[in-house]
Amino acid sequence: MDADALLEGLNPQQLRAVTATTSPLCILAGAGSGKTRVLTRRIAWRSATGDLDPRHVLALTFTRKSAGELTQRLRSLGLRDSVAAGTFHSVAYAQLRARWADRGITPPTLLDRKVGFVLRLLSGAEKNIPAIDIVSEIEWAKARMIEPEKYAAASIAAGRRPPMDPTEIARIFGRYEDARRDQRLIDFDDILRVCRRDLISDPEFAASQRWRFQHLFVDEFQDVNPLQHALLNAWRGDRLDLCVVGDPNQAIYAWNGADPELLRRFPRDFPTAEVVRLTENYRSTPQILAVANAVLAGSGRGVDLAGSLTATRNDGPIPVVQSYETDSDEAKGIARSVRDHHGPGSRWSGQAVLVRTNAQIPAIEEAFTTAQIPFRVRGAAPLLEQPEIKAALAEMRRSTGPFEDALADLAVSVDSTEAAGDRAEERRANVDALVQLGRDYVSVETGPSMPGFYAWLAATTRADQPDRWGDAVEITTFHAAKGLEWPIVHLGGIEQGLVPIGHAKTGEALSEELRLFYVAITRAERELVCSWAGQRRFGTKTVNRNRSAYLDTVVAASAALRSGTDPAEVGKGVSLSAPPPPAPTRRSKTRPDLPRPAKTDTPAELDEADSKLFLALRSWRSDRAKAASMPAFVICNDRTLTEIAANRPSSTQELLGVHGFGEIKATRFGDEILAIVAQAD
Ligand code: ATP
Ligand code: MG
């Protein structure tokens, strides 16, 4: 492909991002704005213009799947020689293996079963703590390059909630590292650490790798952890040929040690770097974008702006919220909805079902199997491969009584286990899902047995999937859907306890949950269907469920779209800066899908004069919203107006001090608001 053809169809900002000769380059933009597209075009363009040799490019991404997609996209852009695209782990491991072979070093063994390894290191009371929770702490520390001696202080400073005293964890962590070294084992994080160490200490190795990879590109940079970042620096050496792409609003791996601050401070780390912002969204309809923006606006904290996104696509249907009585109704309902959306000539692969946890997937798989809809489960380790599930199945196999007794034992063990730590809850949910599958199996089998259960599990869960590449609906988690897109997206189980996840307690964890929901919504191109169930089975218990507070925002934004004048304009120019929550804190008890009548009451904390100003501000807001065809709460919520009425800011500076008022809002609305305040008596 000639160089000019590669620039076709790009907007001016994208054009800048593709052709800028500045290094390093940082592309900071919201979901669906073409970041990944620009990254691949930049590689192809630089290659077409002779600025780089694609054989010396390294493109880093987060999953093997997206690495494959990058390579494919590059090939379709005419790159004959394939660019090296991989994950940090795959590239580091390949380099280390080459080095070991060159130097005649016997490769260390890869330690991939950390839980069993840690279990053997525990003694006395330590054995009461699930080894898996200790492993989570070790992984968290290693991702941030925290040594055992520093663990306790770092854990406290980061507000972690380890399953036991941090100094105890630090001691076990120390024993883990010693035993690992004694046995010449390396774990996954060590691959990155050792690769970096060798690059620093072995100049010959460093020189050969830096010659091999002269031009570095990183997609989804917001999810890089400090260890990966340090390795990237070691790969880079003192060169500046680096292009990173990211969206702080999509940072969803903090729990795993990722640090979006690394993206934010990129311009400070590289004062010569150019930052390009993309502001047009090409993926989603204005309707989906408006809902996504409203959700993001609801976070109030921890969210910063990658630029306000403008919709470019044509109008589409308003997002729909479905409620069901039970989780199994929901699974069937999703299957039905998928079938309804499957028109003649359309492909199943144009639809995806996304859920928050792996444990929700089997019920949906079951419903799809029954409905004979082809599906594929992607991403995180499938349920049956989870260690706790393997352990539970092994336990059931050991039981000599009837199958139902073994199942009942398992159910009781789940119910009586005290949850401790994040992973404990997840584990419990997974075992719950297994118990549920066992019940479903018992209900269809006249003489249930363990071998029969295995066969049934194989048939219902994985083995029944159509061939991996065939036309199928994708079922996966929010996390694994990062960077991907589908015309029609179904989001299931949008309930309190799942979205946000029950163990998210701190402000930071909740912000991350909200960003995760934003990531999920922004996967949709044309249609979005969210659902939740009023009851969900967890093991032996049926639990009443509440709709997620985040869904209130979806409902409110959808209602605003329905009652709005010109939906084509909704979402355009909607600021993502930092507006405070429209919905999460006030769940409406009335039927939420209906537009709410305008309120005429004023906040109790305001005196008469301030109340008058408040009403004036509200009337301005409603005019402004109508004129811009955007939901009023996107401009600012009542709390912000109350604060303005009470504090009466007289300058932009003072206005910026008002909660929920960011720079973008100040630029757009500041003068008007200050004028209204100035006129008030
Ligand atoms: P995410 O943050 O979700 O990873 P992204 O910013 O990487 O999103 P892309 O996946 O690169 O976005 O682009 C989103 C969609 O918009 C893709 O289908 C892409 O092909 C399309 N797209 C991007 N830019 C343009 C453009 N200028 N013209 C037409 N389509 C475009
Ligand atoms: Mg992308």
Automatic annotation (TrEMBL):
UvrD-like helicase ATP-binding domain: residues covered: 8-285
Keyword Hydrolase on entry: yes
Any GO BP: recombinational repair
Any single Gene Ontology cellular-component annotation: cytosol
Ranges annotated as biased composition (Basic and acidic residues): 590-599
EC class name: isomerase
Keyword Isomerase belongs to the record: yes
The EC number(s) this enzyme carries: 5.6.2.4
InterPro entries recorded: DExx_box_DNA_helicase_dom_sf (IPR013986), DNA_helicase_UvrD-like_C (IPR014017), DNA_helicase_UvrD/REP (IPR000212), HRDC-like_sf (IPR010997), HRDC_dom (IPR002121), HRDC_dom_sf (IPR044876), P-loop_NTPase (IPR027417), UvrD-like_ATP-bd (IPR014016)
Residue ranges, annotated region (Disordered): 566-605
Record key words, sorted: ATP-binding, Helicase, Hydrolase, Isomerase, Nucleotide-binding
Segments forming domain UvrD-like helicase C-terminal: 286-526
HRDC domain: residues covered: 607-681
PROSITE patterns, alphabetized: HRDC, UVRD_HELICASE_ATP_BIND, UVRD_HELICASE_CTER
Annotated protein name in UniProt: DNA 3'-5' helicase
Organism: freshwater metagenome
Lineage, uppermost ranks: unclassified sequences, metagenomes, ecological metagenomes
